[in-house]
Amino acid sequence: METMRQMVSSILCTWLIVFFAVDAVDAVDTLGTVACEGRYKHHLQGVCRDGQGSLYWSFTTALVKSDAEGRVVKKIDVASHHGDLCHVAGRIYVAVNYGQFNDPAGNASNEVIVYDARTLVETDRYKTPEVKHGAGGIAFHDGKFLVVGGLPDGVQENYLYEYDMKFVYKKRHVIDSGWTRLGIQAATFADGKWWFGCYGNTLLKVSVDYEVLGRYQFDCGFGIEQAPGGGLLTASGVCSGDAGCSGAIDHRLTQSMIGKQVVQPLTRIGFGSCIKQQNPAPLFSDILKYDPELFLYIGDNIYGDSEDMAVLRAKYKVLGEKAGFRKLQESAVVLATWDDHDYGVNDGGAGYKQRVASQQLFSQFWNDVPDSPRRARAGVYDAHVFGPPGQRVQIILLDTRYFRSDLKKAERRVGGPYYPNDDPQATMLGAAQWKWLEQQLRVPAEIRLVASSIQLVPTAAGQETWANLPLERTRFMKLVAKTKANGLFVISGDRHWSDFSRTTMDVPYPLYDFTSSSINQLHARGTPTDNPHRLLDRTFHKENFGTIDIDWSGDDPKITVSIVDLNGQQQMSHAFHLSELHPSSELPGDK
Q: Beta strand 202-206 with 488-492: parallel, antiparallel or unpaired?
């Protein structure tokens, strides 16, 4: 049977085949960056592709055609300023503005200039006086062009001007986008949606019926285009004085594509937590040998511990430069949530002053897709489903930091100074995340893996744990019962040792909590806190990561969760069948 690693590689190869074979060799590299050769007097305004292996770049006063690797094939000087562009039936359509962009009185002068895609010879010009505040972006779909552009400051909506193939004006569509800086600068139709990039860091996703589906913090105002095989090509550019301006594009997945990266049933999932970024992390070699199809970082992925985002950024950079970390990013699908240290403050919660900035940095480092909900809402919680019907694995990543109420402190115990707080107003997840979680637990799936940065099942012994907010812990258990969410178990980190826990209290079937910690940050004391729900008669206190092996071959799939050490040896393991995670399971006495 073909391994999942081979299947992931097969998908990537399929994308490459699509890029190299569809539409007569459209050879854009799906996984890398393509930089346009040369430097130009003015900044990049837009990009497009023709399906024949060529890219087109609008540098305000220069129109450039390159091959798929960015080597210039042809370039021409053009009037200022040429904006965004799109390719339709062998022609390049460019939105051009001649002045008074964003003029409140609406006196902007615009037109669409058409060029032969092969020669860059001008073929037509079409006036677009309806775009009265300045033409900036242009896109095409289903026989119609949309021209979009500038707005005066303070306007809380955006306007899309529709034209037919002969540029006969049809209609102005108003979208409830909220304020965007200078309106819309770039546009495309991709993956069945309209996408609009704005200066700054705003991306709009709009339905075919012009309903705003999402607003995200993602910078693609320099250009956005449908990528062959799915996803987006997003442009970037840098200008540096006399050196001129550069341009580049990157291929980005979209949110709906993440789960589709693995088309076969998941069989090997890795997870881990707690990476002291400045220290060696040889455990990555063992993780790579395990060859997970999916790897989950459960938090404390760096030890940031600062309100200075430059400090966190530098520490993320150190982690990102580790060879093992990079190789794992290349070989497996990787998802992440955070705990206190990568959030920015030890044992931190909602009171952390830099939580908004820290989340933005988190999304940048973990390369969240342009339309990731995490770019649009508070908190890094997220969810994805992998695999075909009947063998679906849902991954739910919780955020136990952004919204968490202050903890109750008193005399220090073995695990720390924290004590249970029965205040009904105290929260772990916050109202919005609780509502989202209930929705996620109703999503069809056979296995549900909930990643919580801190332990959920163990009782409070001074450490950080859900048991410090016992009403929230009970709420989680009851929500599992309310939603009839079968197949659920928890993975966690934080503790700097590994521990397996199990309870049947307040839940419709046994609830497991498998803790793996840490990848390279050992616990100095080496003595675990008391845990009456401990499943095994041991814990493990050296470098380790967790593995989840799923055997789908029988009528009752078997799940094996293990802790693997620095030598690739299993130090702890527990196997159970999926039928156990079902309300009809026979429940023995609580552990």
A: unpaired
Domain membership of residue 522 (yes or no) is: yes
Confidence at residue 102, expressed as pLDDT on a 0 to 100 scale: 84
Beta bridge partners of 496: none
| Half-sphere exposure of residue 123: CA atoms within 13 angstroms, side-chain side | 13
Specify whether 191 is located in the same domain as 324: no
In the block, tokens 């979009």 appear at 148
pLDDT value of residue 100 = 85
The answer to whether the beta carbons of residues 384 and 374 sit under 8 Å apart is: no
H helices within 323-389, ranges in order? 323-331, 340-343, 355-365
Give the β-pairing of 558-565 and 570-577: antiparallel
Residue 585: is its pLDDT beyond 60? no
Distance between CA atoms of residues 451 and 467, nearest Å: 16
Cα separation, 361 vs 428, in Å, equals 22
* Same domain (yes/no): 334, 441: yes
Instruction: Copy the structure tokens of residue 260.
Output: 């589709």
Burial of 310 (0-12, 13-18, 19+ CB in 10 A): exposed
Tokens matching residue 355: 């939580």
Residue 525: per-residue pLDDT: 67
pLDDT above 80 for 19 = no
Residues 148, 273: one domain? no
The C-alpha atoms of residue 228 and residue 30 are separated, in whole angstroms, by 8
Q: Are residues 217 and 301 in the same domain?
A: no
pLDDT of 539 > 80? The answer is yes
Tell the residue number behind the tokens 């079968």, with chain if given: 486
Per-residue confidence (pLDDT) for residue 378, from 0 to 100:
98
Section 85-97 average pLDDT = 98
Three-class SS of residue 544?
A: strand
Please give the residue range of the domain that contains residue 406: 266-580
The count of structural domains within the chain is 2
Distance in angstroms (rounded) separating the CA atoms of residues 498 and 544: 8
Structure tokens at 37: 């050769």
CATH number at residue 119: 2.115.10.20
Asked, for residue 176, whether it belongs to a domain, the answer is yes
Q: What is the CATH number of the domain that holds 399?
A: 3.60.21.70
Q: Is residue 511 part of a domain?
A: yes
Q: How many CB atoms lie within 10 A of CB 212?
A: 17
Residue 15 backbone dihedrals phi, psi, to 5 degrees? -60, -45
Q: What is the pTM of this model?
A: 0.90
Q: What are the pLDDT digits (tens) for 472-531?
A: 999 999 999 999 999 999 999 999 999 999 999 999 999 999 999 999 988 766 678 899
- Do 284 and 231 belong to one domain? no
The domain boundary residue, chosen from 227, 253, 279: 253
Give me 578's structure tokens: 């999926």
CA distances from 548 to 39, 514, 564, 571 (A): 50, 10, 11, 14
Q: Compute the distance between CA of residue 142 and CA of residue 71 in angstroms, rounded to an integer.
A: 31
Average pLDDT rounded to a whole number, residues 410-435: 96
pLDDT digits (tens, 9 = 90+) for 230-275: 899 999 999 998 899 999 999 999 999 999 888 799 999 999 999 9
What's at 177, amino acid-wise?
S
Residue 192 has what DSSP assignment?
T
Do 248 and 273 have their domain in common?
A: no
